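Query structure, 416 tokens:
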């Protein structure tokens, strides 16, 4: 029997709006069982699929790695001219690969239950369009059942450590995440200051041990810390240092970069083009390499200029984003390259300066509200998914930024 779903973000709505972006830019993994089911659907008998590869194998015969094939224009081979999935139309949604059905939901196992998040890479998520997530509960339960069977998820999964070898129970880990969610949703004050309070909480908790502080005592402890955070967060901070900017730009290159699908950037030109782009991001001068097809022509210098007042609608979007990520635990453990809890918090907070840096590029051709939403969509596409963000090099960069107190400076600097 599958584990129950016990958490759905109440601040977020979603329904597919038929934009088909997910059908055009993602390489969808397919299990051997799903491949067999699609083969048995008889597509090769249709004239339009004669001689067309439907399932690609990126592995070998002995160790296959199947995925849905794409046409020359980048779209999935099953995307029809009416922008609808042919498998869905002919056989129903349950006949599609599980990965297609789940998107953009993020299902996070948390001990004895599942928590639900969302990917803001889906335009409908950022626009908050559709039904309340509670109305999606029946199909989410189906996804959970399919995922447990497909991934062979064990009955008990250990909670990610707070830091190093320090661990707490799932219940206490959720208490920490709820405290972070409370901070970002508190009315009043600037949003960047709320994020810096999250960093301050992480720093204070890293200095504490929670062997005996658990349950209600932990709630009391966190309540005391939350009331004291104002005194821990300076009103103003100096700009990030040169080292901080270089390390941050190297992360930016990964957050913005798109290597597959219709929005692939200079990765199409090969590894040397990517190496050249990495060098340019490290230098931080001149034209920004077009690592994403939708990135407008701009310079590094212009993206350091003040953005100005962030529209209220954008603040609400950012509040929803961080609440959903914190409450679903989609920032630590297996959903984010096995980061420790507090390292995961810092990696998530860095989404904000990355988004505001990129929003400056789009603000030249669209409203600030649209620019922030578009930038967050691109950055969240990589958060927890671009494999290089979980590499040893990037973990080291994150630790250096944290040790030097650069993350808070970056948050304040790009909130200007």
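Result returned for the query:
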């Amino acid at each position: 029997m599958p584990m129950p779903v016990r958490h759905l973000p109440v601040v977020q709505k979603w329904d597919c709006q038929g934009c088909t972006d997910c059908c055009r830019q993602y390489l969808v993994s397919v299990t051997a069982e799903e491949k067999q089911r699609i083969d048995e659907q008889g597509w090769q008998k249709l004239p339009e699929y004669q001689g067309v590869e439907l399932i690609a194998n990126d592995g070998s015969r002995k160790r296959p790695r199947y995925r849905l094939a794409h046409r020359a224009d980048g779209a999935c081979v099953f995307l029809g001219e009416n922008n609808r999935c042919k498998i869905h139309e002919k056989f129903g949604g349950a006949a599609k690969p599980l990965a297609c059905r789940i998107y953009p939901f993020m299902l996070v196992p948390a001990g004895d239950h599942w928590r639900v998040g969302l990917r803001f890479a889906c335009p409908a998520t950022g626009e908050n369009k559709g039904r309340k997530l509670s109305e999606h509960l029946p199909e989410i339960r189906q996804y959970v059942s399919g995922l447990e069977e497909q991934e062979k998820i064990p009955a008990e999964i250990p909670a990610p450590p707070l830091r190093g070898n320090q661990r707490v129970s799932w219940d206490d880990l959720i208490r920490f995440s709820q405290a972070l969610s409370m901070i970002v949703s508190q009315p009043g004050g600037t949003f960047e200051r709320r994020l810096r309070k999250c960093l301050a909480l992480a720093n204070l908790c890293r200095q504490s041990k929670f062997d005996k502080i658990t349950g209600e005592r932990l709630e009391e402890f966190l309540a005391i810390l939350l009331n004291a955070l104002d005194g821990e967060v300076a009103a103003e901070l100096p700009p990030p240092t040169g080292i901080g900017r270089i390390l941050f730009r190297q992360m930016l290159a990964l957050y913005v970069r798109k290597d597959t699908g219709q929005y692939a950037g200079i990765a199409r030109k090969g590894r040397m083009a990517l190496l050249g782009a990495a060098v340019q991001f490290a230098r931080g001068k001149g034209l920004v390499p077009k690592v994403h097809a939708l990135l407008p022509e701009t310079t590094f210098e212009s993206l350091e200029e003040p953005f100005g007042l962030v529209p209220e609608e954008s603040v609400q979007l950012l509040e929803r984003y961080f609440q959903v990520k914190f409450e679903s635990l989609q920032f630590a453990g297996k959903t984010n390259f096995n980061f420790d809890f507090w390292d995961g918090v810092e990696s998530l907070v860095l989404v904000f300066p990355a988004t505001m840096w990129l929003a400056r590029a789009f603000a030249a051709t669209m409203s600030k509200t649209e620019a922030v939403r578009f930038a967050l969509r691109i950055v969240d596409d990589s958060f927890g998914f671009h494999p290089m963000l979980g590499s040893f090099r990037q973990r080291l960069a994150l630790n250096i930024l944290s040790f030097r107190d650069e993350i808070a400076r970056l948050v304040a600097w790009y909130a200007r």
